[in-house]
Design goal:
- With 237 residues, the chain is an alpha/beta fold.
- It folds into 2 domains: 2-126, Response regulator (Rossmann fold, 3-Layer(aba) Sandwich); 132-236, Arc Repressor Mutant, subunit A (Orthogonal Bundle).
- The chain is built from 8 helices and 13 strands.
- The chain has helices at residues 10-22, 33-39, 59-69, 83-91, 104-117, 166-177, 185-191, 202-216, and strands at 2-6, 26-30, 47-51, 53-54, 57-58, 74-78, 96-99, 135-137, 140-143, 148-152, 159-162, 226-229, 233-236.
- It has a 5-stranded parallel β-sheet, with helices on both faces. A 4-stranded antiparallel β-sheet has the order 8-9-10-11, with no helix packed on it.
Length: 237
Amino acid sequence: MRVLLVEDDEAISMGLTYSLEKEGYEVVSVKNAAEARSAWKPGKYDICVLDINLPDGSGYDICRDIKRSEDVPVIFLTAIDAEVNVVMGLELGADDYISKPFRVGELMARIRNVLRRAGRTQSPGTENGSSNNPEVIGDIRIYTNEAKVTRIDAATGQEETVELTALEYRLLLIFVSNRGIVLSRRKLLSDMWDISGDFVNDNTLTVYIKRLRDKIERDPADPTIIRTVRGLGYILD
């Protein structure tokens, strides 16, 4: 899998390039709009990760140019998280959006999820023999390369598939990527815009958290995986 990374912050670019290559991706990293246009060629990349604020232009312009020539997945990286900027990115055809500062693990999970939805399903790292080791949370197993969640049956010890919707799965990944950190409802809402372009409001977030608990908790009435921190938000220990 080949990634076009457009990021003008050298420290962020170096860190992301290292993390992506460690996961088995081939990365072409550029630092401005001119270099991005020079590096871009239809059919060359599987996904593009674009910073919005560039020294000689905007990631929006790069996204527009890319989408005109090929429907390749695009994820925006930016310090701007205002709703209007999210809407603009989605209207240009972006597939996801993550605000700085972010956790590298969350970005990697989002890249895998976007590639899966786009039908570009080759798992990174498999050419080098790496295995798909699951994230483990109690009796829950999350296989991010396959976007699959399972639970160990207490009686038989066998893994059973847990059927999650796209947004329930995204919500679970947000918690996993921020394990041990209390997440406010505001933070969750900013990350939970619908893949169809509809925004998740506060009441809907409550519904999704309840549905997710119903599917992954042994006792949803007394959750031990996703706990409520009164007055602050939620935490996955």
